């Protein structure tokens, strides 16, 4: 396989439970790719984003990744979650095809800045546009391209991280643009891990406070379509990597 067909992998781990959004609680193997076109101020996965960590990312063939997924899952089909970094910048189509042939399912998490035609082959697409507190600006035309690429294929859901009032307003506006998409609100973790450290310490009380505030906002506004969920893996394991 030529080098450009290889997939840049930061880590493969599991099975664990999906900690976020529409598939929360579901046993999952994660394939985390390296590299991202965004730099969110509060990113909890900088080791898969910052090119300073590039030497920890391994270019792998589909067969190499697949052998690892098979070994972790004991050959029993489950959901593989493709995350990153931005997994949309990697050539993941052939991996999805490989796994589907053996009955595995694929979910992908992306910010919605890069569209690929293989989005249509996914089982679940989680689009996570970034609110103002991230420091990023959403290009809604590119976001629309992602939706168009997925048309007729996967279940699609919105998952929006909320730190403050402005983020909440952004989430309402984003959801109003796409009233047919289920929307998940996730309280921000304001103590994300340092990129080069596996320090799992975390301010759970602060996260719970933000979560209660968010529940209050949604119910006061009678926004009855929204679902508010914590990052379950963060509640269970703090900032630990590989869970
Ligand atoms: C690390 S990102 C990787 C996938 C893709 N780049 C994205 O942002 O959707 C996975 C999810 O974690 C969320 N996330 C990142 N940092 C977070 C933080 N500090 N608190 C809560 N959620 C966070 C992102 O918004 C995204 O929904
Ligand atoms: N258990 C678990 N659930 C997750 N959901 C999204 C994750 C991510 O970092 O993309 C993640 C993760 O790293 N672990
Ligand atoms: S888009 Fe995702 S991976 Fe990239 S910096 Fe933002 S949260 Fe991190
Ligand atoms: Mg994470």
Automatic annotation (TrEMBL):
The enzyme's E.C. designation: 4.3.99.3
Keywords for this protein: 4Fe-4S, Iron, Iron-sulfur, Lyase, Magnesium, Metal-binding, Queuosine biosynthesis, S-adenosyl-L-methionine
One GO molecular-function entry: S-adenosyl-L-methionine binding
PANTHER family: 7-CARBOXY-7-DEAZAGUANINE SYNTHASE
Record-listed substrate binding positions: 17-19, 32, 83
Entry keyword Iron-sulfur: yes
One of the Pfam families matching this protein, by short name: Radical_SAM
Species name: Rhizobium metallidurans
Domain Radical SAM core, chain residue ranges per copy: 23-239
UniProt feature coiled coil, ranges: none
Record-linked InterPro entries: 7-CO-7-deazaguanine_synth-like, Aldolase_TIM, Deazaguanine_synth, rSAM, rSAM_sf
Protein name as catalogued: 7-carboxy-7-deazaguanine synthase
Cofactor binding note: Binds 1 [4Fe-4S] cluster. The cluster is coordinated with 3 cysteines and an exchangeable S-adenosyl-L-methionine. Binds 1 S-adenosyl-L-methionine per subunit.
């Amino acid at each position: 396989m030529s080098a450009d067909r290889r997939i840049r992998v930061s880590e493969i781990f599991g099975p664990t439970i999906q900690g976020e959004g529409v598939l929360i609680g579901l046993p999952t193997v994660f394939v985390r790719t390296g590299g991202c076109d965004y730099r969110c101020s509060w990113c909890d996965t900088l080791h898969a984003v910052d090119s300073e960590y590039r030497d920890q990312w391994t270019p792998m063939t589909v067969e190499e990744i697949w052998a690892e997924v098979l070994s972790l899952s004991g050959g029993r089909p489950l959901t593989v979650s493709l995350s990153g970094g931005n997994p949309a910048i990697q050539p993941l189509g052939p991996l999805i095809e490989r796994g589907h042939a053996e009955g595995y399912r694929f979910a992908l998490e992306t910010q919605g800045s890069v569209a690929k035609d293989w989005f249509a082959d996914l089982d679940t697409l989680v689009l996570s546009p970034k609110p103002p507190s991230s420091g990023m600006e959403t290009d809604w035309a590119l976001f629309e391209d992602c939706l168009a690429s997925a048309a007729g294929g996967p279940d699609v859901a919105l998952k929006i991280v909320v730190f403050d009032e402005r983020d909440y307003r952004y989430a309402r506006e984003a959801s109003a643009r796409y009233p047919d998409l289920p929307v998940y609100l996730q309280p921000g973790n304001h103590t994300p891990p340092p990129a080069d450290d596996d320090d799992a310490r975390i301010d759970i009380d602060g996260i719970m406070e933000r979560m209660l505030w968010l529940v209050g906002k949604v119910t006061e506004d009678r926004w009855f379509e929204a679902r508010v969920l914590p990052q379950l893996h963060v509640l269970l394991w703090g900032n630990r990597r590989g869970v």
